[in-house]
Amino acid sequence: MNRLALPRLALTAGEPAGVGPELLVRLAATSLAANFVAITDRALLERAAIRCGVEINLIDDDGGDVEERSPGTLRIRHIPLAANEVPGRPDPRNAQHVLATLAEAADGCISGRYGALITAPLQKSSINDAGISFSGHTEFFAAHSHADVVMMLASPELRVALATTHLPLNAVSAAIDATSLERTLRIVHNELQAKFGFAEPRIAVLGLNPHAGENGHLGREEIDTIIPVLQKLRQQGMQLLGPMPADTAFVPAQRQHYDAVLAMYHDQALPVLKSEAFDRTVNLTLGLPFIRTSVDHGTALDLAGTGKADPSSLIAAAQMALNLVARRATHSSTPLQSEGTASSKAV
Ligand SMILES: NC(=O)c1ccc[n+]([C@@H]2O[C@H](COP(=O)([O-])OP(=O)(O)OC[C@H]3O[C@@H](n4cnc5c(N)ncnc54)[C@H](O)[C@@H]3O)[C@@H](O)[C@H]2O)c1
Ligand SMILES: N[C@H](C(=O)O)[C@H](O)COP(=O)(O)O
Question: What is the ipTM of this complex?
């Protein structure tokens, strides 16, 4: 890429019957300085643009660089739908199409064809209804890249990583063992340094049980697993708080003490972020060999086809991807998303 070329960012549309295609069109209509390449069906985007009342200029992607992009211009790598979308009604016949777009995007990022990937939401249940075992982008990209990864959702005020992702609640305890927790904490620590610029990241680790187990009276996972891992990693220099009771870890008095939270399971912490910053939270995957960001919301089937879905989270995801691409290129010392937080020493 020449020095003046815009970063080539891959976009996937997710569930064709959800709001993803409309959000891609709205993202393309912004003046963000990126060479967006949508990996999806061309006609799907054309129909989404009509629903949104947005003009787009779709250009077949030739793999080349550009120095400017006018709002509305979007390069496309056409991957055909199996069946035309009916907004609000996911069709499992399109499951293979959705997975093909993810695989193409991941392969393109790994080979350097794209500088980063931004994903719109997909309907996990529709892929499952097609008879395919699938639990989320995070797990798909981890398997596709043979990488250990961690899901993080980040707003300008709060970063939350998850020790487990899309698991039934009754499987969570067994999934958290010393090995997995240590691996997760190392990834979060390293990525807070590499991606967010914290020299000595402070991570608040939540307990699994109410009141972090109340000294063993409300569960033993803290005593048997979490505390020993924290003690071991503290001895190696990591700044780890906890295990903290999840119900009070997010109160203002606590937030100044950490740069990120590690929650034990999906719904332990994501409701905090989604209720206070639904329009500006970004989902990113830590540990992958490429940059992947995403929205913090789902397919919003109730809004699909109306053109009314809010593109703010997708735009924030694209902006974060651009920041991460720039940081990777320059090894910049500027911390990302530290506004409004009491940051530790950021390099
Ligand atoms: N990144 C992803 O692929 C991703 C993320 C979250 C959920 N999902 C999937 O999405 C599906 C539906 O999930 P859900 O119903 O729990 O959550 P949802 O986020 O789709 O919807 C929850 C509520 O938020 C509203 N909403 C969501 N996005 C909005 C937007 N951009 N603008 C305005 N309002 C918006 C919806 O209208 C709805 O009222 C599930 O299959 C879930 O697994 C996918
Ligand atoms: N856990 C995410 C959320 O609640 O926003 C969401 O399900 C998306 O996960 P993937 O990026 O793994 O699809």
Answer: 0.97
Which range of residues forms the domain containing residue 83?
1-147+288-310
> Is 188 in contact with 152 (CB distance < 8 Å)?
yes
Residue 3 reports pLDDT greater than 70: no
- Tell me if 77 is assigned to some domain: yes
CB-ligand 1 contact for 197 (6 Å cutoff): no
Instruction: Phi first, then psi: give them for residue 105, nearest 5 degrees.
Output: -65, -45
Q: Output the residue whose Cα is nearest ligand 2's atom 2.
A: 296
C-alpha 217 to ligand 2 mean position (Å): 33
Alpha-carbon torsion angle 250, 252, 257, 262, nearest 10: 10
Alpha carbon of 297 to ligand 1 centroid (Å): 4
Per-residue model confidence as pLDDT tens digits over 257-313: 999 999 999 999 999 999 999 999 999 999 999 999 999 999 999 999 999 999 999
Do the beta carbons of residue 7 and residue 325 sit within 8 Å? yes
